[in-house]
Amino acid sequence: MTEATAQADAPEGVQRPVRRGRATAGAGRLAALLVSPTLLVLTVVVLYPTLMALKESLYGAKGLDPATGFISDTEPFVGLGNYAEIFGEAGARFWNAFWNTTFFAVVTVGLETVIGVAMALIMHKAFKGRGLVRAGILVPWAVPTAISGLLWRWIFNSDGVANALLGQQILWTTEGVHAKIAVIVAEVWKTAPFIGLLVLAGLQVIPTEVYEAARMDGARSVRRFWHITLPLVKPALLVAVLFRCMDALRMFDLPYILVGAQKHSVETLSMLAQNEASNVRFGPASAYAVILFLYVFLIALAFVRLLGADLVGGGGGPGGRRRGRPLRRGEVAA
């Protein structure tokens, strides 16, 4: 029965719902076919390495076999021993890397959010030479992280630009709080334009009529920013902050190149896992990698759970579900 026939046979004033089972099934099969390449790639590059890392974390490093006294050719099965070590005396280095990772993520993302919003507001203004200003702001984001680390290493050298401007001899790339400051400055310079770019995209979809109405009502620029700009650009800003949080928690290359490996003040979880793997301690390295994966996953999950309605752009309530009046007789749900 076609849609026209179904509507013709229906009583007057009553709209009969049309079954779309076959169309829905066909659309579902087409959607699965189109998504399958992406799922295959994610399985190969994400799921399989994660499962292998989880399996490897259950084994210890090769060493002397207590039963024979010879060096073992296989890694001994230790179960959750690698995870239990982080709660003992041997876990001091892990917790230092954990707190360094959290500290860098909180400080850098916070500064990048403030600076990125300011950059977006500047790039959104209409003035002469705006294209040149936009290009200058976005250049740091286009620079590879390795090149950025080398650049800032020269700047923070003992006879570099930073000490020349300050008039002091500070060893930025050694240990201590100076190394942390150097990493934070370099990271914020590198990635603040990313947040600015996403916020700029959100600003450009705000209708100008909204600002014109606010000006007619006598709202000043600060009030327009807090009550118009910030609420309307909030979804794009939250997505940018989420991406930056996930990226900052995996920070490795910038502190590794700028300060160096095995530096207590700047060592992150990624650097710790890489150092353990380079020393052929694949079991502990995999355990640290799994813990980092769970840490990033939980932060992202909490972020989406708390702010999920804004992230998906839903407007009607928790989870983006729109609440309207109940359907009347004869109406068909869209």
Structure description:
The protein has 334 residues and is mainly alpha-helical. It is 66% helix and 0% strand. The chain contains 13 helices and no strands. It has helices at residues 3-9, 21-56, 81-84, 92-124, 130-142, 145-155, 161-166, 177-203, 208-216, 221-249, 253-258, 269-278, 282-312. Helix 2 (21-56) runs antiparallel to helix 13. The protein is globular and about 85 Å long. The model is unreliable at 312-334 (pLDDT under 50).
Structure keywords:
mainly alpha, 334 residues, 13 helices, disordered C terminus
Distance between the termini: 20 Å
Q: What is the count of β-strands?
A: 0
Order of helices and strands: HHHHHHHHHHHHH
Rounded to the nearest angstrom, the radius of gyration is: 27 Å
SSE-based structural type: mainly alpha
Share of residues in strands: under 5%
What is the number of helical segments per DSSP (H or I, 4+ residues)?
Answer: 13
Shape estimate: globular
Which bin fits the share of residues in helices? 55-70%
Q: Major sheet: size, sense and barrel closure?
A: none
- Uncertain regions spanning at least 5 consecutive residues: 312-334
User: What is the arithmetic mean of pLDDT?
Assistant: 80
